[in-house]
Amino acid sequence: MKLPTTEDRDPLSIGLSTRPDEEILALLLQRQRDALTATEAAIPQITRAAEALRRAAQAGRKIGYAGAGSAGLTALADCLELPGTFGFPPERLRMLFAGGAENLLHLAGSHEDNEETGYRDFQASGLGEGDILIGVSASGTTPFTLGTFRAARQSGTVTIALANNPDTPLLRIADNPVFLNTPPEIVAGSTRLGAASAQKAALNMISTLVALRLGHAVRGHMVNLVADNDKLRQRAQRILQDLTGCAAGTAEEKLALADGRVKIAALMILEDLDAEGAAQLLSANDGNLRPFL
Asked: d(Cα 268, Cα 272) in Å, to the nearest integer?
């Protein structure tokens, strides 16, 4: 029987347990590299997916993620990281995880088998016309994720799908399919290894490209972060000093007046404005700091 790539067995896995520890680890690492290399072929598809996400983000639309099991955890990580890294408003994010929050600890697999649950979870999410739903499924056949996409299509929500098997239902139904052609896993079917590495890389690429295009990442800095802890406040001060050439004391003072918002503090320094004036100027430029640097 011909198996999907994600269920096939890597020939190098045979007799693996008889090899030295270092050799096993080296092979595991090499297969992670192979998965990341396979992602390179998907760059044109990733580019189109990023453009769809950029349009939605710039229009103030909501962004949803859907997935189950390991793929769902990869999607969840990207969803949770967007606000802290690029300042995306948390109230505009949705996470559709098979089994809900209570399934995060033990990951009962039965939840992913119910397409109707995915359909209902989407309907309850508030996602709709012009929003974005990003679905992640190594197999490309996960019923829960397919259910969310079926509901998304009916609601006019634009879909992005990441899958590691070719010509699968999730890729066929998606507006923006991204096929990550990863090799068989060193432990057959354990897609938290190579497949998940490729998924994480692709999601990182999409969100970072969008942040660059929206002006949330400037000169190698995450300028849309909101400094709400000591680590981020120190990082924000370094960003302000690098972007404006100001002294450390000035950076600390303006950041406090700007409630930790780096872009606002930067404009306060660069244009000699108060926080309100800086906010208005930033809004008039679609939140982009680049014209002032």
From this structure: 5
Of 22, 81, 116, 276, the catalytic one is: 81
Distance CA 282, CA 273 (A): 11
For β-strands 158-163 and 132-137, DSSP reports them as parallel
| pLDDT tens column, 7-62 | 566 676 667 778 889 988 988 888 888 889 889 999 999 999 999 999 999 899 99
**3 state DSSP class of 65:** strand
φ, ψ for residue 142 (rounded to 5)? -60, 115
- What 3-state class would DSSP assign to 28? helix
Q: How many other CB atoms are found less than 10 A from the CB of residue 276?
A: 10
Show the tokens assigned to 249: 């004391």
3 state DSSP class of 162: strand
Mean pLDDT of 76-95: 89
Q: Which of 53, 106, 41, 39 is nearest to 82 (CA)?
A: 53
Q: 222-262 pLDDT, tens per residue? A: 888 777 788 888 999 999 999 999 999 999 999 999 998 99
Q: Establish whether 81 is a catalytic residue.
A: yes
Of 22, 23, 91, 112, the active-site residue reads 112
Instruction: Give yes or no for a contact between 287 and 223, defined as CB atoms under 8 angstroms apart.
Output: no
Distance (Å, whole) CA 256 – CA 82: 23
Phi, psi of 220 (to 5 degrees): 80, 10
Contacts of residue 122, Cβ cutoff 8 Å, sequence gap at least 6? 64, 66, 96, 133, 147, 148, 151, 152, 155, 157
CA neighbor of 128 nearest in space, from 153, 99, 103: 153
Residue 217 parent element (H or E): strand 217-218
Q: How far is CA 44 from CA 33, 139, 179, 202, in A?
A: 20, 21, 10, 11
Instruction: Please say if 112 is a catalytic residue.
Output: yes
Q: Are 31 and 185 in contact (CB under 8 A)?
A: yes
Query: What pTM did the predictor assign?
Result: 0.86
